[in-house]
Design goal:
The chain is mainly alpha-helical and 123 residues long. The protein has one domain: Cytochrome Bc1 Complex, Chain D, domain 2 (Orthogonal Bundle). It has 6 helices and no strands. α2 packs across α6 and α4 crosses α6. The protein is globular, with a radius of gyration of 17 Å.
Length: 123
């Protein structure tokens, strides 16, 4: 019986930890304002200077039609998982050397998580 109590407590702590680590989409939308200079995330909104990011989570990198991606990104083989988005948002040039994206990255890890949560909401 005690073993089940510890398992339940461990599960509860895990759930609480995951919930605390999750991003805040509302704040992510505010942080995305920096990205909105080049990108939009409106479904069907088209591309700007950068590609449309609606539905980017889970999508293969450099896969939207009608956008001229850098050869480095096209050849990266990346699928935009949360882990890859996290690396990209923190430092695009480090993840894909030679990318054309002129963005130094988000310095605050919580901002990165929040933008990822926002992007997940834009499908």
């Amino acid at each position: 019986m005690l073993r089940y109590g510890f398992a339940a407590l461990a599960a509860l702590i895990g759930i609480t930890h995951n919930a605390a680590a999750a991003g805040n989409a509302k704040h992510g939308e505010q942080v995305f304002g920096r990205c909105a200079q080049c990108h939009n995330a409106k479904k069907g909104g088209g591309n700007g200077l950068g590609p449309n990011l609606s539905g980017v989570a889970g999508r293969k990198a450099a896969s939207l039609p009608n956008f001229y991606y850098s050869p480095a990104l096209k050849n990266s083989g990346i699928v935009w998982t949360d882990a890859k988005l996290k690396l990209w948002l923190a430092n695009p040039q480090k993840l894909v050397p030679g990318t054309r994206m002129a963005f130094a990255g988000l310095k605050q890890p919580q901002d990165v998580d929040d933008v990822i949560a926002y992007l997940h909401s834009k499908k």
